[in-house]
Amino acid sequence: MKNVFSIMPNFLRDPDEFFRSVQREEDVKGKAVTLALVAVFSFMAYGFMVGLAKSPLQALSSSIKLPILFLSTMAFCLPALYFFSLALLGTPLKMMQVLTVVLAGISVSAFLLLGLAPVTLFFVLTSGNYEFFQLLAVGFVGISASIGVYFLWRGMTLVETARNDGLKGLRQRILLLWIMLYGFVGTQMTWRLSPFIGRPEDPFYIIKPSRDNFYVDVVHALQGALNLQLSEASWIAPILLATLCVIGLGAVIFAGGALLGTMARPTKHMQTSETK
Predict the structure, then answer these.
(1) What is the pLDDT of residues 9-61, one digit of tens each?
(2) Using CB atoms within 10 A of its CB, is residue 117 exposed (0-12), middle (13-18) or buried (19+)?
(3) 138, 181 in Cβ contact below 8 A?
C-alpha cells in the first residue's frame, strides 16, 4: 500500500531509471499492479469531481466510467502495439513489460488529473455553464493525456532497444501510429460511455451517447460556450473540427519531437565520452 502513494513521485523524479528497471525485469508485475491502482484511484477522484457538476449520482457514475474509459482503451490497443513490434522488430520485450510502460503513461495522466481535481471542484461550485464546463473537462483531460503520451513514448524508446538505425526509425513510426490509434479509440470510447457530466435539464443516464460523435459534440460545446447560433456557426463548425484534429495530432508530434530531442543529447554525450 505504501508504494501506491510513493510510486508516482518517485517515477516523476527519475523516469529513466524506472524504465530501465522495467527493461531489466525488476518486479515488473508489482509495478504494473501499483500503477494500475494509482490510475484507478486518480481517475475515480477526477471523475467524481466532473460528475458533481450535475448531481451526486452522476458523480458516482463518472467516477466508475473514467477509469473504465482509459483502461479499456489500453486493453483494446495494447495487443496491436505488442504484436506489431514483435512481427516487425522482433522485440525482446514481454507483454508485461510493454503493459507496465503503457500503464506508466496512463498513470501520469491520472496523477495530473488528480492534481486538477480541486480546480475542477472550484468551477463546479462557481460556474453553471454546461458547455464551458464540458470544454474545461475536455481540455484538462487532453492536456494530461498528452503529457502521459510523452512519458509513454519516452518509456518505449528506452526499454525497446533497436538492433540497427533502420529498425530504430521503424520502431518510432510504429509507436507514433499506435499513439494515433490510441487517441482515436479513446475518443470513441469517451463518446460511447457518455455522459460524464450530463446536461442539467436531462434526467440521469448511466450511458446515453449523442447521435453524433465525440468531435461533433466538442464543436457543439464550442458553439454553446461562444453563444453562436446554428446559422452563424454553420461555416465555422468544419473549421473548428479540423482545428481540433490538427491540435490533437500536433500535440502528439510535439511530444514525440521533444522527447527525441532530449533523448538524442545524452546519447551523443555518451558516444563522445566513449570515444575519449
Answers:
(1) 999 999 999 999 998 999 999 999 999 999 999 999 999 999 998 889 999 99
(2) middle
(3) no
